[in-house]
Amino acid sequence: MSARIYQIQKNAMQSGKALTHKWVLDFEQSEAKKADPLTGWAGSGDTQSQVKLTFPSQDAAVAYAQKHGLAYTVIPTPPKTLKIQAYADNFR
User: pLDDT under 50 in the chain at which residues?
Assistant: First the structure.
């Protein structure tokens, strides 16, 4: 069973940095989703893909994965780039 470890990114609609310091471990899908013939909803028998574990640091998430023998991939946080712009630039 393999897992991904990544840091929560700021939402586009979010101005603050709340909850962006947490790290998440979620499991990759082990079987493909298929459409239910009655309702048409997509689903699978894989319940592990519904589990998301949060950790205070990357080291804690990696320690959890190693303790439970999970194959994991750490997705690095992309660098934050700020676009410095004055309000007057909107009218040029």
Answer: none
